Records
---
Amino acid sequence: MSHRLPPLSALRAFEAAARLGRMTAAADELAVTPGAISRQVRQLEQHLGVALFDGSKARPTLTPAAHVLQPVLTTAFAHIADAVREVCDPGRGPLDVACFSTFTVKWLIPRLFDFQAQHPGIEVRLRTTDAGTGAGRMHGDLTITAEEATGAWDTSKEQRLFPEHLGPVLSPELAQQVALHQPADLADPALAPLRLHTRTRRNAWAMWGAAAGATVPLPVPTPSQAGPEFEHYYFTLEAAVRGLGIAVAPWHLVMDDVLAGRLVAPLGFVASGYDYVVRRRTSGPLPRLDVFCAWLQAQALANPVPPGPQGPPSG
């Protein structure tokens, strides 16, 4: 069926203006003048027969019609950009990698120098994606995320990096003041102010408690949320390093700190039931992706083995 669509340039100008909130910002993004953006938007309004912006030119607001149109256009243009990238020469251009911000800071960036040394011709651009786990819509060439460990992978587009292991960590100085011999010790109400929490993963203590209770032969009460809460895992881990409390953290995010003596893990680590997974944008042969995925796998295999869980003291 044939559809009479508005001019693509008018749709592009409106989408940029609506997404960015200002005509001048849209003009900068599209490398045209603000007047050209305004004319394209008026042309689109005439074509549709509806107003798309209210308010003054300095502070325009979206009409109900614009609120319907803008997200659809944004998604459509993103799909077009992805398709164009896919048919372009895979051996040129930067490699876009998206992953959780703390994973980027604590695991990927400290190792990325090795990739750059081995492959100086491949530029890696990092972006964060902290909107929860799962596939979602891919905005780059490759996404590193966490998935429930089901074992069912689409091997043409996905590869398992490593299983996640959780454990309580704290500074050596704080460990001298707090006696932790078994997981149940952390349910002590006196330790409640020291239990650190993260807004993006409020269930970390519950996940560790359930996993530790299944691993060691004793019940592990789940600590209630009584201690301070931080916006991101990175803040929580830094607070633990500085002696502000006890954090439940994945081994791969704290292993460098544990091995360097900045943190201790007196109770070891237990499997959380999640795997870290690399998901490619396409299953086709793309040399840049192939090289980076192989490097990631090698780095994952080089991860030190986490210390095992500690049960109740013997005797």
---
Amino acid sequence: MSELASTNSANSSQTTAADNKEKASAAKPQEQEEEIDIDLEAPETEKAALAIQNQFRRFQKKKK
């Protein structure tokens, strides 16, 4: 009898997880992509990109 109860509770938890995913996706409003106007030729943008790349390279070296 306890085996049957544990099986039923396992099945109900799986169903509720699937239902929660469906509810979460249905509740999300349609997101619109925001256009971002960035001047890729601007010197500030290039400096920022180089700084990010250098930090990432340092992180990769530390990781090894």
---
Amino acid sequence: MSDLDSVRERVLRLAFRTARSLPGAAGGMGVYFSAQQRLAEDPRYAGWRRDVATMLRRADRRFLRGHVASALRWYDKALRISYDPSLHQTGGSPLAQDPDSFLRPLRQSALGTVLLDGTVPEGTAPPRPAPRRRGEDEPLRLVVVAQENWTFMRPLLAALRATGRYEVQEIEVDDLPDGGFPDRERIIRGRYDLLTTGRRMPTPPALVEAFEWADVVLVEWSHHVLTWMTLLDRAPRRLMARIHRFEAFTPFVLLHDHRRIDRMLYVSPPVWAMLTTIAPGYSDVPSSQVGNLLARGVEQLPREAHDPHLLVQIGWIREVKDVLFSLDVLTRLRQHDERYRLQLVGPALQGDEARDTPYQRRVRAALGRFPDGVVEQLGVRDDVPSLLAQSGAILSSSRHEGTHESLMEALVVGCPAVIRDWPDTVAYGGPATLYCPDWVVADADAAAQRILELADPQRYREESADAREFALAHRDPAVVVAGYEHVLQDPTA
């Protein structure tokens, strides 16, 4: 950061905090921007609940005076603070830990009782195209709708096309003509209008055409795009959506018209369990667990040679990955044998220590307590399968995960896993709902003990074989594609 940028940031910080005390809307905006800035600096900022309450009071005052548009804007600011990524993507999410307490202020406000707990009026279901009779060998017509992030979906669509049983169209909502895909403000207003008047949002012509053509429409990422799709005045023959961990920590899971969704596809049982707690409407939607295609490692056979004293963690810089847990495990291991070391793969700490968050300062200090070479920061690598194949074990130290895809990449090349019982998911089943429970450990002591047991060559060979067998049983491309075909082809699946 340049000196000028640093000065500009300090000026803005001072301006926001000064503006908090101003009367009227200016003070409200000061509270809002100051809350965002403080959370960015320190996710443990304790004043965020007070700031949310300020936004809700302003929203309710405007709402009770009949100023709906401005009330919705203030309510959305309360949502934005409540769901700031700093609160939920660093570990210790207040939403995951206590959903009722987290959501209570949002639900109990005058506007929240409408937006979050209102009932869609009867008789407002949008029309669907008439059923389409398919020939026995005729491909299923699939339309996939997403915004920007197609990372997980594109390999799957390629595999589905390769079967010859699907015609696929992709709709990127950002490419719809002007006004086709609304902004967040219009989507939230659309939710309000549906609940209070029964009026639905207009369907863009490109989607009308897609709905008429498709047998199934699948929405990838169940956030604002899915909310919008369920608010439209037209509907496809069958609407499905796929949900990941990310969407669970956005307010949009509370804003869908769940009755418009024919099936939810989820990749993570703990996330799904949390969602049905947060948004009970999901409990009424048929659901199926599906997987992601493994991007790397399936064709790479496990190596006979590996270093049982070499541990690896993929992704570690974000607080939710909790590398401090891994470093704690490493400390315990080195008390038994100083040959143990750890490789960290992924983006590293920034060069300017003055810019460190409180968590990053703790990480930097913990790293400094190890001798040179014991902890290697490898940065972003394109040879991850090879690194995993030569490692003794992969560590998953996270506080919260959906599936932790790098674990499967390790398992498929025969690298055993040591999986912390992700603290934020314990109440929802944790990683044992996804992986072998024997691989899941309660704390750093148990993690170190499991790694020490893997030092036995016979035990390691058995666990390495079990790891690959498990990965292929769950993520072999044929297995994953068959799972999707089951739900796409069978309306009752």
---
Amino acid sequence: MEFENLLKLIQAVSDSELTGLKYEEKGVKLHLTKEKETIVTAVQTADSPAAFAAGAVAAPAVQVAAPAAASAAAPGSAPAQAASEETATEPSGKIVKSPLVGTFYAAPAEDADPYVSVGDTVKKGQVMAIVEAMKLMNEIESDFDGTVEEIYVENGQAVEYGQPLFRLS
């Protein structure tokens, strides 16, 4: 992919409501993710699949500041207030968040028991739920050891990237 096209793609993701994009062409894999107001870009070439899988970036990472919708609004306006309310209601503690957009499932099958319930003790790496995205079932693992204090989503509910799913103590 040409550098100019890469910059156009990064800008398109910055300007959109997307929180992530994966693209592959001729042995080059591109993965863009956006958290709040920053986009992090990782590029993999055919020469470095192992390094990319291990978390290393084959090409330099490019960070582009996304335009902040709230900062463009006048002080005290509704969008700025909504943004401050979102941060004020963000749960505290050990939070397990959704790594992708999809549908949340608490159990491996409709008739099965949920992976975890409030009060259960979990270990780091333990499967806590599934998020289905594009017909793929993605296991959501705990990032922490702890006890499940709250479950923020219902079975079958749509979830967003970075949305809190569980709170552990």
